[in-house]
Automatic annotation (TrEMBL):
Superkingdom: Eukaryota
Keywords, in A-Z order: Metal-binding, Repeat, Transferase, Ubl conjugation pathway, Zinc, Zinc-finger
GO MF: ATP binding; ribonucleoside-diphosphate reductase activity, thioredoxin disulfide as acceptor; transferase activity; zinc ion binding
Protein name: Uncharacterized protein
Organism: Protea cynaroides
Length: 492
């Protein structure tokens, strides 16, 4: 008799854990996680996978690879069927069928009144073949009517005028022949490495299989030399909002924002210059703006503060150069922030309360800095925690909390987005590539977004906006609030 306990243990049990989508860098639940049946388990949310598949189908890619870096698995179409529109799934199936056909050896019937596609489903090299539609004989190798007693190389006179015209078109446009399926391939954009619809990768310069020719080796060597020669290094920040809080300053403080990024840029330049005294500057240094004494603030027409000895640093750079062509480029830090326990990059806090899932269950967690300050003041209590939950992570409407503390713990929804743009502009002159700036709008619309874009442009902001986040996507999960404790606190 079967053991019922064994049957129960065989069921897959999902343990709630923190998951982050590798595409949008947003937290997700197990329910919203895409499952690539029996292939790979990389964390992606369903929405991102659906958009990814749509883009690939638009590019006419039949076998869609997993978007995870270095993963060689393919997405399982049946696993994706429930998360994409029916029309998109149908297009994908058509591409898969077309791809399967192209992988087979095929020929079109050469007779004008037929022209059906004929597949070699038996394998091997076929010469004499009968069209299943018109029943006429043809040569499967040279794609011409059957030439009994003649070799394929002796049938040149049998080719009609269209074949000759097509040959001239191929020669004029310099189309290449795929070494796999032997069909002509046109490259209309992109690099010289071509992937034919039959799946073969080849070099468009010489027409040989990829990496079997000198062209590919030369391209790889040049790219490697260029990358090594520039010595790029995109330094950024993690937990800027935490730094503001620990210093007891509101997030909108413009002086601190500028001081932090000026300090980062100054010391990055100085360290790069010191390394250049031991090694030569990067290969394309000579002729660059830095080699001419032009630093990032100079390009903005701004002068740095007198906190640091910029004159001495400029003199050092003119003498020794720098070893890096790129130094400061703040990027999103959602994953590392979760590991380190800091807020993301230079983002304000979206809420002062959030949920944390561990093996033992789900817990409500209050901003650790706010919890520390309220405890130090003797204000912390379960009732106050209820108020913060009830306020959706905001402390602005809680009368027990002092005004100076409210200013420090404003969430991003309580800070004007023009202020966020102004802060990006202020630090822009100390960033030598770009900054990934998110915009948060409680009630978004095209008018607000367009107005904000024009405002950023008028301020000279040299970056695009990374994400537009709405309140619904960023709200803390609603928990059961003890209303009796809440009322008691408000009345007191």
């Amino acid at each position: 008799m079967d053991n019922p306990n064994l049957l129960d243990n065989s069921k897959e049990v999902e343990v709630p854990t923190n998951l982050t989508c590798e595409i949008c860098i947003e937290p997700m639940t197990h329910i919203n996680k895409f499952k690539n049946l029996e292939r790979c388990v990389h964390p992606f949310c369903r929405d991102c996978i659906a958009k990814y598949i749509e883009a690939k189908v638009e590019e006419r890619v039949a076998e869609v690879p997993c978007p995870s870096l270095n993963c060689e698995k393919l997405l399982d179409p049946l696993s994706c069927r429930r998360i994409i529109p029916a029309g998109l799934f149908e297009k994908w199936c058509d591409l898969l069928c077309e791809s399967a056909v192209l992988r087979c050896k095929s020929a079109y019937c050469p007779f004008v009144n037929c022209l059906v596609l004929i597949l070699n489903e038996c394998g091997g090299n076929i010469t004499r073949s009968k069209c299943p539609n018109c029943k006429k004989l043809l040569c499967f190798q040279c794609k011409l009517p059957w030439h009994a007693g003649f070799g394929c190389d002796e049938t040149g006179e049998m080719r009609n005028e269209n074949d000759i015209l097509f040959g001239k078109l191929v020669e004029r446009n310099k189309w290449k022949i795929c070494p796999g399926c032997k069909y002509r391939v046109e490259r209309n954009k992109g690099c010289q490495n071509i992937k034919c619809r039959c799946g073969v990768l080849f070099c468009y310069t010489c027409g040989k299989i990829k990496n079997s020719c000198e062209c590919c080796r030369r391209i790889v060597m040049v790219e490697a030399e260029e990358q090594d020669g520039h010595m790029r290094n995109g330094g950024g920040v993690n937990g800027l909002a935490d730094a503001f809080i620990l210093l007891g300053m509101a997030f909108e403080s413009p002086e601190l924002n500028k001081d932090i990024f000026e300090t980062i840029y100054y010391h990055a330049l100085k360290a790069s210059c010191e390394l250049a005294t031991k090694d030569d500057p990067y290969k394309t240094y000579h002729g660059s703006p830095v080699s001419k004494g032009i630093l990032q603030p100079d390009m903005w027409g701004l002068a740095p503060s007198d906190h640091w000895d910029w004159s001495d640093l400029r003199e050092m750079i003119s003498k020794n150069g720098v070893i890096n062509s790129l130094l400061v480029a703040p990027m999103p830090t959602a994953s590392t922030s979760q590991i380190l326990g800091n807020n993301e990059c230079f983002e304000p806090y979206t809420s002062n309360i959030y949920s944390r899932r561990v093996l033992s269950g789900e817990f409500v967690v209050v901003n650790k800095h706010l919890l520390h300050d309220l405890t130090e003041m003797g204000l912390w209590s379960p009732a106050l925690k209820n108020n913060i939950i009830y306020g959706n992570g905001s402390v602005l409407k809680i009368p027990e909390i002092p005004d100076d503390l409210k200013a420090i713990y404003k969430t991003v929804w309580e800070i004007k987005q023009k202020t966020i743009v102004d802060m990006a502009v202020d630090r822009g002159c100390f960033i030598d590539q770009s900054q990934s700036l998110n915009i948060h709008m409680d009630q978004r619309n095209f008018g607000k977004l367009t107005s904000l874009h024009f405002y950023a442009w008028s301020k000279g902001l040299k970056t695009g906006m990374y994400y537009l986040r709405s309140r619904a996507a960023a709200d803390a999960i609603q928990f059961t609030v003890d209303t009796s404790a809440l009322n008691e606190t408000v009345q007191s």
